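Figure caption, in words: inputs first, then the predicted bound structure.
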Amino acid sequence: MATDEIQSWAYDEPIRSPFALPRGALGRLAGRLMLWLNDPGELVTLIGKQGSVLEVGCGPGGLLRHIDADRVCGIDPSPDMLQLAARHNRGRDIDLRLGTAADTGHPDRSFDVVVSVNNVAMWPDLEAGVRELRRVTRPRGRLLIAWHSATGSSPIARKNSLAEEKLARIAQALGEPTRRHELRNLTVFERRCPG
Ligand SMILES: C[S@@+](CC[C@H](N)C(=O)[O-])C[C@H]1O[C@@H](n2cnc3c(N)ncnc32)[C@H](O)[C@@H]1O
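Bound structure (S-adenosylmethionine present):
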């Protein structure tokens, strides 16, 4: 079964994993595992109740299902993941579209919160992704970038965690002031956009 190759800013070698750009039967299996393994609880609390939220790289839609907002949108480059996300969120009014961190397809200043979970290390260009996410965040809105935590309770999180120097690059790309939160299995960088 074919697995696409991704050249990312975070690794020297290209990534070949059905979790990175899930497609086909193996990709859908990876998507179901994500739904089973990921616990969105603490992140949902950090996001809070909002007017509008965009999840970038939403995968199978596990977090989307729990977001409490008047307008909930998700983008992902994988049509298979968008299909799973639609199925997992059946009955909810959610706007799902093809897109990437560098090209979300949404207008300027559209969202109160823009969140990315476990995909920042798959972006080809970190700075281009952060620029785009800031573009679609409203003034005073928040941008949250979460990645597997090195101190997580899950062995999967620990195995996939990034070196501190890579995490520092994420914080630097977001700019000051950026807060860092250590959740159970996620390290989250939060930047409030200027007013
Ligand atoms: C490990 S999954 C995480 C999915 C979901 N956020 C979750 O936590 O369950 C990574 C997701 O990132 C998506 N992805 C890959 N490259 C991307 C990019 N450049 N921009 C946005 N999303 C990307 C993949 O299609 C996949 O759905």
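The domain at 5-192 is CATH 3.40.50.150 (Rossmann fold).
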